[in-house]
Design goal:
15 strands, 5-stranded mixed β-sheet, alpha/beta, single chain, RNaseH-like_sf, Hepadnavirus_pol/RT, about 40% helix, about 500 residues, RNase H type-1 domain-containing protein, nucleic acid binding, RNaseH_sf, Nucleotidyltransferase, domain 5
């Protein structure tokens, strides 16, 4: 038989949960919640705590039975922190009660979907619910909340203006003083209990951990600005142009833009480099949340530093870049912290772009063929007849060609760091050289002696010949200076 798609989810649920036994013994309800719905809003109460919310334009066109189920769902926000508990729902609509207790409706799909959504939320919270009838005349508090005409907190900017704010200041991470239908961010803090909100009452949170957006009621603007100043938080606050208000001098200068957050700074940096808009999201996905939080703190400091200097934080400026790093160093930070700031700034700045102004020239315009040199050195044979100088030149040259090592590396080779195993000669370089760096392995030179490589065979034999010279003692270096102090290319074996 063919199973309709609408039933597959239900069968999948039973397949997963059929082995999860539950105690069917009646338990005492730990919480009682009253809810009610009107054509314009919903209301709820429990233990003296009340909350309400408005319907959006689409919801206002819905049937009252559906709104009653939604009101019961939103009323469960009063138990948002509760888990592994049993809740009694008091509703004055029999159809809503029937749909909730049965976990859906077989007659109306829209009622079935609403009841299923409610039960999924309860299932994730390990909450057991039961709906019971209460006459409207007794559902006083919930009814009052669903019919109040107070619209003090339900105003917002239209989407066009809000979009311009995002273009100018960046995308906020959280919306403060919002509601379910008012929020323009996925994460928001509501005035009253709300199933979708992160928390209730934004003043109870620490704002420094977010790049926030707030459009507070006029009566609390002074309190909002005071909290921002005390916590040194950064975000977007929409207030009226009202110079006569006592809080107006506390608003920041229009010339100073608040830090838009680490993610937005990186996104703008990619766009400034000419990265296509559709590719930026893919590039941003490569930065996980953990590193992004680490980057955000450093990028915020650099943003604030550039704002104080009145320069563009996304435009590479060598003096600003170095002065910022010097300030980090002068604050007592270690080398690792300084290096961390440097690498994170390189994520948004592009010092390489300086090459467009003054392109570098190749260090070597041509390369030479070593065959003629090898042919010349091949004439220095047999080895036993060579003097010390020729033997040294030949050994240094062949070691440089076969290992591609710098002359400085060859100059610090020591006898005690040379080991031989079978046909392999291994030379360790523990000394600090130009290519040394913290956390970077020191070089190890490997020479394999085989019949197809006469040059490596010469290196093996030279090690033995060198031991014959009395000049070796008491030095440990394999190469020593010749008759006078000269450059490294005048060294002797």
């Amino acid at each position: 038989m063919v199973i309709p798609k609408v039933l597959r989810h239900e069968l999948d649920w039973w397949n997963i949960n059929i082995g999860n036994g539950q105690n069917i013994k009646p338990e005492l309800f730990s919480m009682e919640i009253f809810s009610d719905a009107s054509p314009t809003r919903w209301g709820a109460s429990s233990g003296g705590v009340r909350c309400h919310g408005f319907w959006d334009d689409g919801e206002r066109q819905m049937h009252i039975n559906l709104l009653e189920i939604k009101a019961a769902f939103y009323a469960l926000s009063l138990s948002k922190d509760a888990e592994h508990t049993r809740i009694l729902l008091r509703i004055d609509n029999q159809t809503a009660i029937s749909c909730i207790n049965r976990g859906g409706s077989i007659k109306y799909s829209f009622l079935n979907e609403a009841a299923t959504e409610l039960w999924r939320w309860c299932e994730n919270k390990k909450i057991s619910i039961f709906a019971a009838y209460i006459p409207s005349s007794q559902n006083i508090e919930a009814d009052r909340e669903s019919r109040s005409d107070s619209f003090d907190t339900e105003y917002q900017l239209n989407n066009t203006v809000f979009g311009k704010i995002l273009q100018e200041f960046g995308t906020p991470e959280i919306y403060l003083f919002a509601s379910r239908i008012k929020t323009k961010c996925e994460t928001y803090v509501s005035w009253f209990p709300d199933p979708g909100s992160l928390s209730v009452d934004a003043f109870t949170l620490n704002w420094t951990q977010y790049f926030f957006y707030a459009f507070p009621p006029f009566a609390i603007i002074a309190r909002v600005l005071e909290k921002i100043i005390q916590e040194k938080a950064q975000g977007i606050v929409v207030v009226p142009l009202w110079p006569t208000q006592p809080w107006y001098p506390e608003t920041p200068s229009a010339s100073q833009k608040p830090c838009p957050g680490g993610r937005e700074i990186i996104r703008r940096a990619f766009l400034k480099r000419g990265t296509p808009e559709n590719a930026v999201s893919i590039m941003m996905a490569s930065i996980t949340e953990g590193p992004l939080k680490q980057y955000s703190a450093s990028l915020k400091k650099y943003w604030d530093f550039c704002q104080n200097k009145q320069v563009d934080a996304l435009q590479y400026n060598l003096n600003i870049y170095l002065n910022f790093l010097l300030g980090i160093l002068d604050s007592g930070s270690s080398f690792s912290i300084l290096n961390l700031y440097r690498s994170e700034l390189n994520l948004i700045l592009n010092p390489i772009s300086v090459a467009n102004i003054r392109p570098p020239t190749p260090k070597y315009r041509v390369t030479w063929n070593p065959d003629s040199l090898l042919e010349f050195l091949g004439k220095w044979y047999p080895l036993e007849t060579l003097d010390l100088e020729k033997l040294t030149y030949k050994l240094v040259t062949l070691m440089a060609l076969t290992s591609t090592s710098r002359v400085q590396t060859l100059s610090v080779i020591k006898l005690t760091n040379i080991s031989k195993s079978g046909n392999t000669l291994q030379i360790k370089i523990p000394d600090r050289i130009k290519t040394s760096a913290l956390g970077k392995p020191q070089p190890v030179l490997i020479f394999n002696n085989n019949n197809n490589n006469n040059n490596n065979a010469f290196i093996f034999r030279s090690k033995k010949i060198g031991k014959r010279y009395a000049l070796r003692q008491p030095f440990n270096c394999i190469f020593v200076k010749l008759l006078r102090c000269v450059a490294l290319n005048r060294t002797s074996y």
